[in-house]
Structures are given as C-alpha cells and as structure tokens.
C-alpha cells in the first residue's frame, strides 16, 4: 500500500542498524582505473585485466555510448522517482519473483526492506518481440531512452568480456550463448536524502551474482568498494561507466578474476540515483571453472552449478559477509 507522506525528518526504527551491523566508515576517495576503450586493443585488454585483478572495478571511457544518452538516462531516472506516488503505484510489487517491479524501503508503508533505497528493477528479454511493454512509460521518453540505453550498455559489457577472453586465453565466444543469455536486468536505484546517514544503509556490502555489471553511477557520490581490508569512495568521472566483475566471472576463471564487495552509502544533503545493467546467465546454464584453469596444481575452487542453483546458493549465505567470496561460496554450496 502506498502513502504520500514526505520522507520523515527522523529515521524510523526499522531503518536503524545496530552499531555492530553498520559498515565501517571511510574517508578514502579514489578514482578507479580509467580505461580508454579507443586505445590499441592489446593495451586496452591488458588494462582491463590489470584493473580487474587489482580492484575488480574500473571505469571505461570512449566506450561508444553517446554521452547525451547517458545524461538523458540520468535525468529521466531521477525524474521517475520524483513523480507523485500515484503515478508509480501500478509498478509496485512485493513479489521478489516478479521480473518487472518497483520496491522500496523509504516510501511504502509495508515491506521487509530495511535499506534506505527505492529500486525499479526491469528485465529485458532479447527472445521476445516487445521487450518493454510492461515497463513504465512516465516520465515522457523514459521507456524509449531506457530501451536504447540498456541495449548499448549491454554491448559495452559484452565487448569487455571478449577482451577478457583474449587476455586470459579462453576461446573468443566463451561468454556468448547461455552464460550471457538470460534477461538483461536493468536496475534504477534511488537513495533519497536520509535523516540520519550514520545509522542507515543504502545497500549493504555485497558481490554481484551475475557475470558483469555496467553502472551509470550518477553525479552524487555514494558507491564504495572494498580494498585491502578497507573501503574506498568511488569518484565519478563524467562520461564513464563503472564496470565490475560478477560472481560468475570469478567462478569461470577459478578465482583469477575477483568479484569484489561494494556498498551504497546514504547522505542527508541530496538524493542519489544510479543505473545498473546486469548481464545474467540463463537459469539452466551450467557454470563452473573453465578447463583452461584446472590442472593437477590448480584444482577447481568451485562446484559447477546451474545459474538457478547458484542463485539459491547466493541466498543461503550472504555473499559479502566477509571479503572472501571463495570461502562464502564453498560454505554455501554445502547446503545444496
């Protein structure tokens, strides 16, 4: 059920996390490695692998997505969340299995979301004719811009995956087919101004369960990445995407490339909106360490699971409870 009350001036109790559950604060701010995708292919490929091994995160520029499209996406995403609640009510659902839905911790009266975040999650299925018929059509041009944007953002992710293949010795089409053939999940995250950021969480520490993520972070800071036992604030560079490797890429490379924890912090000064594009495997795709990375000296660190099984595993153990994804996965897999 929706209500139209303004965001409260004090934080409701259900959003207050005990001190021992709050992520440690950080003051470190860095610019992630910036990779110019218009450079020589060998140079770009090497930069992607170096950044991926060091941080699991990097930024890309000259990626082929028009900057005006990125700006339009930022503006329209923010405008969607600023619309009156009555205009968004039809998209709200508490059903976590629904492909397209709006859910919220800050604006709706009921629901278990404890995080100071509103989220519009949409699925783009390349196998059907009308990909976006169930997507929001307000504000004006939102659906048109979202569809153009998600196709181009996926293209950036797939090109990066091709370069990863070239760099680590996998066949060039390794990430074609089922391993990247699920719905492209398009997620707009909105973090309203928070009455008390010191005790609230936008998104908790987590690793992405997909293959690769292409993020439009927006102009307001809030993304933080785990690094050397601490957290670093990501400095946004206009015109770039933030890219990070998901759990499936770590599994395929048997731990060579890492899926790194990250989190979203709140602030009391201004709202923040980000747009994430997740390249997902199909549910029945069997994923395990590639044979290229397995020998008598390098046993598999992970079991082979379908992506559907992996998602159940992901929910058994909160991947991100520590900085060691391998340990978390191995512990979770015992539950299957």
Automatic annotation (TrEMBL):
PROSITE patterns from the UniProt entry: FE2OG_OXY
Keywords linked to the UniProt accession: Iron, Metal-binding, Oxidoreductase
A GO molecular function held by the record: metal ion binding
One Pfam family from the record: 2OG-FeII_Oxy
Family to which the UniProt record says this protein belongs: Belongs to the iron/ascorbate-dependent oxidoreductase family.
Database matches in PANTHER family: OXOGLUTARATE/IRON-DEPENDENT DIOXYGENASE
Listed name of the protein: Fe2OG dioxygenase domain-containing protein
Organism: Digitaria exilis
């Amino acid at each position: 059920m929706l209500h139209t009350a303004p965001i409260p001036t004090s934080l409701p109790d259900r959003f207050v996390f005990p001190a021992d559950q709050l992520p440690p604060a950080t003051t470190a701010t860095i610019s992630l490695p910036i990779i110019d995708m218009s450079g020589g292919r060998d140079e770009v490929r090497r930069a992607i692998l170096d950044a991926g091994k060091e941080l699991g995160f990097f930024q890309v520029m000259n990626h082929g997505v028009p900057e005006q499209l990125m700006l339009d996406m930022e503006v329209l995403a923010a405008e969607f969340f600023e619309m009156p609640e009555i205009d968004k009510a039809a998209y709200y659902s508490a059903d976590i299995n629904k492909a397209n839905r709006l859910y919220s911790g800050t604006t709706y009266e009921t629901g278990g979301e404890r995080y100071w975040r509103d989220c519009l999650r949409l699925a783009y299925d390349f196998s059907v004719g009308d990909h976006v018929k169930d997507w929001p059509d307000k504000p004006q041009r939102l659906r048109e811009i979202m569809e153009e944007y998600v196709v181009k953002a996926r293209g950036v992710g797939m090109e990066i995956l091709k370069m990863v293949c070239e760099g680590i010795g996998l066949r060039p089409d390794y990430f074609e087919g089922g391993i990247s053939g699920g719905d492209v999940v398009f997620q707009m995250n909105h973090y309203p101004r928070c009455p008390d950021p010191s005790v609230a969480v936008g998104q908790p520490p987590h690793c992405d369960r997909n293959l690769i993520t292409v993020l439009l972070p927006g102009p307001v800071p809030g993304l933080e990445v785990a690094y050397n036992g601490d957290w670093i604030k990501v400095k946004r560079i206009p015109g770039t995407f933030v890219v990070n490797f998901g759990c499936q890429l770590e599994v395929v490379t048997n731990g060579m490339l890492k899926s790194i924890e990250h989190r979203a912090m709140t602030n009391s000064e201004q709202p923040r909106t980000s747009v994430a594009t997740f390249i997902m495997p199909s549910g029945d795709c069997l994923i395990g360490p590639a044979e290229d990375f397995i020998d008598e000296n390098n046993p598999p660190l992970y079991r082979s699971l379908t992506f559907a099984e992996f998602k159940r595993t992901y929910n058994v153990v909160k991947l991100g409870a520590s900085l060691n994804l391998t340990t978390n996965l191995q512990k979770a897999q015992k539950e299957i």
